[in-house]
Design a protein that fits this description.
- The chain is α+β, with helices and mostly antiparallel strands.
- The protein contains four helices and seven strands; from the N terminus they run βαβββαβαβαβ.
- It has one domain: Bit1, CATH 3.40.1490.10.
- Helix 2 packs antiparallel against helix 4.
């Protein structure tokens, strides 16, 4: 199935495995919250056991270093795409309000980004992530 939109997450490659997974989970929750229309129907197995709905389209995950993450953020904002962000300072917090404060305390150009995610038209996302490789 071809989607008009694309969801991309860009995760810093030098993180520990648990950090990468944590960042990806938090960032995709931002996409789900901002775009409820991307959520599919609930699941059910052959036994009739119900399960939660998931985002109904693929999420492409790219790897990047710090400068490439900053470049992707700039490209997104230049194209009026509002991304979800995760900064290194957020690893030191324990709740959502503290996460927001950690981001609010730092100017955009000084954010120590470890990940971002965005959803937009396919061609727009392609321009934002141009030059990045899929995360390994």
């Amino acid at each position: 199935m071809q989607f008009d939109t694309k969801i991309a997450a860009v995760i810093r490659t030098d993180l520990q495995a648990w950090q990468k997974l944590n960042v990806a989970a938090f960032l995709t929750s931002g996409i789900a919250a901002a775009f409820p229309e991307c959520i599919g129907e609930a699941y059910e197995d052959a036994s009739g056991t119900p399960y939660l709905s998931l985002i109904g389209q693929p999420i492409l995950i790219y790897g990047a270093d710090g400068p490439a993450l900053s470049r992707a953020l700039d490209r997104a904002l230049t194209r009026n795409v509002k991304p979800a962000v995760y900064t290194e300072d957020m690893f030191k917090t324990t709740h959502d309000a503290a996460n927001r404060e950690a981001v609010r305390a730092v100017a955009r150009t000084d954010l120590n980004l470890v990940g971002l995610a965005m959803r937009a038209e396919r061609k727009v996302i392609d321009k934002i992530v141009d030059g990045l490789k899929f995360h390994s």
